[in-house]
Amino acid sequence: MNNKQDISKFISLENAIPALAGNGWRSSVRRVLENLLGITAVRQVVTDASVSNSQDIFSRSLEILDILVDSKGVPEAIKSLPKNSGAIIIANHPFGGADAIALCSLCAKHRPDDSKILANSVVYHAPKFPQYLLPLKILGEPNAARHNLKTLKTASEHVNNGGLLGVFPAGGVSHYQPDQQKVTDVAWSEHIARIALKTQVPVIPVKFFGRNPLWYQLIGRINPLLRAAMIPRALLIMKHKTIKCRAGAVISPATLAKEEHPTTFLRNAVYSIPE
């Protein structure tokens, strides 16, 4: 497929809202919504980034957006791993867009030949993205469970074969949790700890600092789909800013195997990383 075909399916409103599929007035409504939500602008960013031959598409996207990544300790943690060894990078997900691009950039930059990222399938169809992304259906799409099990199996095989896997175990963007009275990740998926235990690979915890603005939190409380729909706009307001992340101590397979609740242990390892 050519780039135009790919990018038209990138964050597709037709898939998210079937009633808007088709031509005529539906096409006009889609264009208006895509502009309002920032989808059109984000599509242009990744399209422009895809023509670079000197940088991976994620690093180039950050450059176009003028988003700096303060990642002290993360490249060093990746480089500390034995060459061609499997590993998993886990991170919290406070932004949804900027943190995802930053993590992809860090993996692609420091392990360019064997990095894969578990990501929402809505962003899969963009130039050069399939080279790095393993798509998960997390918005209730048809046959999601079967699709996701297949993707998780592929992810496990990738790590077992010596690849680097980046993942946001929450599977969605951090938002206000009434029971905890703060903005934080939802419960993490148990699958990631299982993959780590099964493949016996080290895990690098990474914490991103910050959160999306108040308006995002308020809109997100109305409906989960609205929360997801506002991620492109939340990404665009990060222009000319710096996103900060830090790596914690690498967690060995033996250490994780001792834990009665490995997913809770991994989550705590991320959230306990200091600035």
- Give the terminus-to-terminus CA distance: 43 Å
The DSSP helix count reads 14
Number of strands: 9
Major sheet: 7 strands, mixed
Evaluate the radius of gyration.
Answer: 18 Å
| The CATH H-level homologous superfamily | Glycerol-3-phosphate (1)-acyltransferase
Strand content: 5-15%
Structural class comes to: alpha/beta
CATH class: Alpha Beta
Estimate percent helicity.
40-55%
CATH architecture: 3-Layer(aba) Sandwich
| H/E topology pattern | HHHHHEHEHEEHEEEHEHHHEHH
CATH third-tier fold name: Glycerol-3-phosphate (1)-acyltransferase
How confident is the prediction overall: mean pLDDT? Answer: 91
Give, in spatial order, the strands making up the sheet with the most strands.
1-9-8-2-5-3-4
Low-confidence spans: pLDDT under 50, at least 5 residues? 1-5
Domain unit count: 1
User: Could you say which overall geometry the principal axes of the C-alpha atoms support?
Assistant: globular
Keyword list:
single chain; 275 residues; alpha/beta; Glycerol-3-phosphate (1)-acyltransferase; seven-stranded mixed sheet; two-stranded antiparallel sheet; 14 helices; globular; disordered N terminus
